[in-house]
Write a structure and sequence with these properties.
Blueprint: E1 7-9, E2 44-50, H1 53-69, E3 75-81, H2 84-97, E4 104-108, H3 109-112, H4 127-130, H5 139-144, E5 146-147, E6 150-151, E7 161-166, H6 167-172, H7 183-197, E8 202-204, H8 210-218, H9 235-250, E9 253-255, H10 264-271, E10 277-281, H11 285-291, E11 299-303, E12 314-315, E13 320-324, H12 331-343, H13 345-355, H14 362-365, H15 368-371, H16 377-381, H17 386-393, E14 397-398, H18 408-425, H19 430-445
Parallel strand pairs: 1-3, 2-3, 2-4, 8-9, 12-14
Antiparallel strand pairs: 4-13, 5-6, 7-10, 7-11
């Protein structure tokens, strides 16, 4: 039975993940239609909901491996692939109704806060099942899906923010990307590139908050104050967005088709040479390989720019936390299988080899037979190695506290639908846009 035949696709929506921007209402993968499903075989049936078919393929592979290693605890994995928004809406409706729930579900990071509110979340604490693996897992990514000491979701990748540079374009403009260390360096290179070519160096964000979150983390800022109240007009938030707005004014940045680098329109623009520098999570390697074939052999991966003097070098961008529903009649088995599927060394090797994502297990980061394999399509595409870059900054991986706040989904939506378009599309002064957002959010959240 083929993998495609093992998954059900509900309300098929081609390329659904590409219409989203991970970490601020986005998916870290695209969904595509698949045919009917009968699952992975005999054993205890586990129903799983996902919003990315590629994730489903990985889960099926890990279900097969689990069954090989656990002949007395076989599972029959039944995966349903929904479009992104539909899946999260359906999961929320099922939680509210207390019925119709799957055993396991992927929950995208910007939606996760909706499912861990209050003292009795509908998700199963996963601490015990994680115990055999946690020593090698990037703690910041576990923290992302944890509340009050309980792990409620297992991460898919680190998503460490890095910089992707088009070496051919930069060399033609006389720019050496290896000299870019700080955001000041980045802007200077961007201005020089714009003057030499008439094109923007990188994209200004309008529908995704990755770069804003990175700079804000490097500044030691947050979107909420010490009491947990919304504080989007804080000095650090103003500084982060004024830095980006200043780069747009200087010509270093310009808006990108589709509103973020992770759209079909953006892939075309980047592939044709309209932008030379993309600061994005490490999982964006898959987008270059899959959607920008003309840039094969031209893209270098380097550390993301930093705020001079700051301790945070990078943060994880985007993500999917995979959870077990507390009411599942097979919760214990589901938790053990999920820990094996998301946290084990073999699972994390598959995350890199199948998905092209930077795995959450540091043990894999140190295994050069895996990370530097010559037959790996990602290693063949890029001129530098993703893991060389990640290991360079591994001690400076920060955790953006705002991601774990229960009101983050609401605040992030305000930025992607209002604040960023006002600033970068309409030219609204940063302080004015943030003051209005602060007032609106106070009224909305209460």
């Amino acid at each position: 039975m083929t993998r495609a035949s093992r998954m059900r696709m509900v309300a098929a929506a081609s390329m659904v993940g590409l219409a989203l921007a991970a970490c601020g209402g986005s998916a870290d993968d695209d969904g595509a239609p698949s045919d009917g499903s009968t699952g992975t075989g005999g054993g205890t049936t586990l129903e799983m909901w996902v919003f990315a078919e590629l994730h489903g393929e990985l889960y099926e592979e890990m279900a097969d491996r689990w069954n090989e290693e656990n002949p007395d605890r076989q599972i029959d994995l039944q995966i349903t692939v929904y479009p992104y928004q539909d899946m999260h809406n359906n999961l929320q409706l099922a939680v509210n109704a207390g019925s119709g729930l799957p055993d396991v579900a992927d929950i995208e990071v910007s939606k996760f806060g909706n499912f861990v509110r209050g003292s009795n979340p509908p998700l199963l604490p996963l601490n015990d099942a994680a115990e055999p693996y946690v020593e090698d897992i990037v703690q910041a990514r576990l923290d992302l899906y944890s509340r009050d000491g309980n792990i409620y979701g297992y991460p898919t990748h680190v998503g460490g923010m890095v910089a992707f540079y088009n070496t051919e374009l930069l060399e033609g403009a006389g720019i050496d990307y290896t000299t870019i260390e700080t955001w000041e360096d980045f802007e200077e290179a961007g201005v020089a590139y714009n003057e030499a070519t008439g094109k923007a160096f990188g994209p200004a964000p309008t529908e995704v908050t990755f770069v804003q979150s990175l700079i804000l983390s490097q500044l030691g800022g947050n979107l909420f104050d010490e009491d947990g109240d919304v504080a989007v007009d804080s000095p650090e938030v103003v500084e982060a967005l004024e830095l980006l707005a200043g780069m747009q004014e200087s010509g270093a940045l310009s808006t990108i088709p589709g509103g973020s680098p992770d759209t079909e329109e953006a892939f075309g623009a980047i592939n044709s040479g309209d932008f030379a520098a993309i600061v994005y999570p490490g999982w964006y390697t898959s987008r270059f390989v899959d959607y920008m074939p003309d840039l094969d052999g031209k893209i270098a991966i380097a550390p993301a720019p930093v705020v001079e003097g700051g301790e945070v070098l990078t943060i994880g961008g985007g993500g999917t936390g995979t959870s077990v529903l507390a009411d599942s009649p097979n919760a214990e088995l589901a938790a053990e299988w999920l820990a094996f599927t998301k946290l084990s060394p073999e699972a994390n090797v598959a995350v890199w080899e199948v998905l092209g994502f930077d795995p959450v297990s540091m043990a894999v980061w140190d295994d050069e037979e895996v990370t530097h394999a010559e037959d790996n399509k990602f290693n063949q595409y890029f001129t530098t190695n993703l893991f060389d870059v990640l290991n360079e900054v591994r001690d400076g991986i920060g955790h953006f506290e705002a991601f774990t706040h229960p009101d983050f989904p609401t605040v992030d939506s305000m930025f992607t639908t209002s604040v960023l378009p006002q600033i970068f599309d309409s030219g609204t002064p940063v302080e004015d846009a943030l003051a209005q957002a602060q007032s609106d959010l106070e009224n909305q959240i209460g």
